[in-house]
Amino acid sequence: MRAAVVGAGPSGFYTAEQLLAAGFEVDVIDALPTPFGLVRAGVAPDHPKIKSVTRVYAKTAHHERFRFFGGVRLGRDVSRGDLLARYHAVIYATGTSIDNRLGIAGEDRPGSHSATEFVAWYNGHPHYSELEFDLACHRAVVIGNGNVALDVARMLVLDSTELMPTDTADHAISTLRATGIREVVLIGRRGPAEAAFTNPELRELGGLARVDVVVDPSQLEGLENPTENARRQSLELLRNYAGHGTTSRSHRLELRFMRSPIEILGDGAHGRVTGVRVGINRLVCRPDGSVFAEPTGEEELIECGLVLRSIGYRGEPMDEIPFDERRGLIRNVGGRVIDDSGVCRGEYAVGWIKRGPSGVIGTNKKDATETVANLLEDAERGALNEPDEGLVAEAAGGWLLEQSPETVTWDGWTEIDKHEVASGESQGRPRVKLVRIQDMVDVARKRSGVPS
Ligand code: NAP
Which atom of ligand 1 is found nearest the CA of 145? Predict the structure, then answer.
């Protein structure tokens, strides 16, 4: 049985690992010449331990029935139909690559960016490396209270000793070292007890070399201690920050709760960001126990020169694969892709494009287990896709190598990896990333032959 996994991020690799264990031949394709998805292009550069999970994926890649075809984009180089004609199962592990929109005036002004863009830029994603961020202002506002919001806020205030030993892309290091930003204000629409960020990330802020973490104690007044352990700890951390007051540190990172952005202000109708008009909320508890933010009618203005919007990701429709527009996901039940007439034979989804952008990297392993279990059940009862035998043989040969001028195999990626690590050695950095696709392809092919 042959399976194609589309997307070489964590969920793609966990799926590949489990399919290999079940005896499948597995081809993993990715739009980029490099593997690892968000571990390479999303995880914050100052979190190297999280990135070390790639060793597990590399082990999977060395399996004799595994092949990698980087630089092959579904919808550009190969179609859904091409894959279904050649594989017994096609698993979409494409993640959620675009940002949710606030839907407020001024959202697209110069100086207002999605966290998606900023993260991809500092991580050297080749589609975002040419972007420019003007960090000359004094204050930045980050909208959202998730871990991505904390990542981007931290990146804005890291000092050189924290930034330099990382694999942050060179272009971003130059810009971040010259930043004028001294203050970052993070705004969350609900309260401290509802924030989506997790405790290790919240605690980490207190260890930043040149930063005072600021929480107005009045925001914590009257809050009861939650029964849930993690929530209680997070409140303790916030109380701790609130109790510290400010020191003589050069930078401030303020957590401001119960604030919703109403408008991003700027010079003229389309000019640069000058501030954010925010509405102050109160919290209301629904009968089902959920808590939502309701405007009080009061407003405040936060002056700033940069806005990063970090309010979650959503997936993009691809090549007529059934898509749930409302949720921004592939339509599926337990990972089986469905359309109006029922299950789409042999098509599966896994990871964020299946369940939405939630959880940590390891969550995708459990998620892959569910999808693969359903796939194997379908295989058992003869309900997988039935590809064309001649085309299956073609796919088993070199078909994918010829579908894109940018194709890079695992050997090619190994060359890129060696090149980047060697470039980083003299600077005491884990790697210096290549950020242009052509450079990646050139390095991949230099030593491993063409196509690599
Ligand atoms: P997230 O955890 O879902 O947080 C999204 C935030 O945006 C929430 O605070 C949400 O507030 C807010 N929001 C949504 N719509 C809004 C609106 N219209 N106006 C104002 N605020 C709005 O998403 P994320 O930060 O993008 O992270 C995605 C996943 O990756 C999460 O599971 C996260 O834990 C994970 N991640 C983990 C790490 C790590 O482990 N270090 C690092 C980065 C990301 P409400 O709660 O009120 O909806």
Answer: 9
Pairing of β 342-349 and β 336-339: antiparallel
The per-residue pLDDT for 196 is 96
**Is 349 within 8 Å of 378 (Cβ atoms)?**
no
Q: How far apart are the CA of 257 and the centre of ligand 1, in A?
A: 14
Which atom of ligand 1 is least distant from the CA of 293?
47
- Domains detected in the chain: 2-97+313-407 (3.40.50.720), 101-309 (3.50.50.60)
Residue 93 CA from chain centroid, whole number:
13
CA of residue 235 to ligand 1 center, whole Å:
18
CB 163 within 8 A of CB 429: no
The token pair that represents 214 in the structure block: 């600021």
Q: Is the pLDDT of residue 370 over 50?
A: yes
Provide the strand spans (E) within 129-203: 139-143, 183-187
Q: Rounded distance, CA 83 to CA 69, Å?
A: 13
Find the 44 Cα to ligand 1 centroid distance in Å.
15
By CB neighbour count within 10 A (0-12 exposed, 13-18 middle, 19+ buried), where does 369 fall? middle
Assign 452 a pLDDT band (cuts: 50, 70, 90): very low
Could you tell me the pTM of the whole model?
0.96
Owner of token pair 């698993």: 91
Q: Which of 31, 100, 115 is nearest to 314 (CA)?
A: 100
Using H for helix, E for strand and C for coil, what is the string for 318-352?
CCCCCEECCCCEECEECCEEEECCEEEEEEEECCH
Q: Give the closest residue to 345 by CA, choosing from 95, 12, 87.
A: 87
At 248, is the pLDDT very low, low, confident or very high (cuts 50, 70, 90)?
confident
User: Amino acid identity, residue 285?
Assistant: C
**Whether 26 contacts 66, CB under 8 Å:** yes
- Residue 33 buriedness (CB in 10 A; 0-12 / 13-18 / 19+): buried
The answer to whether the CB of 78 falls within 8 A of the CB of 341 is: no
The SS3 call for residue 435 is coil
* Rounded (5°) CA angle 202-253-270: 120
Rounded to the nearest 10°, the torsion over CA 255, 257, 263, 267 is: -30
Asked if pLDDT for residue 246 goes beyond 80, the answer is no
Determine the atom of ligand 1 nearest the C-alpha atom of 358: 32
Q: Is the peptide bond before 451 cis (omega within 30 degrees of 0)?
A: yes
Q: What's the half-sphere exposure (Cβ side, CA atoms, 13 Å) at 417?
A: 14
Question: Which residues on adjacent β-strands are paired with residue 283?
Answer: 293
Measured from the CB, is residue 42 less than 6 Å from ligand 1? no
| Residue 292: strand pairing partners | 284
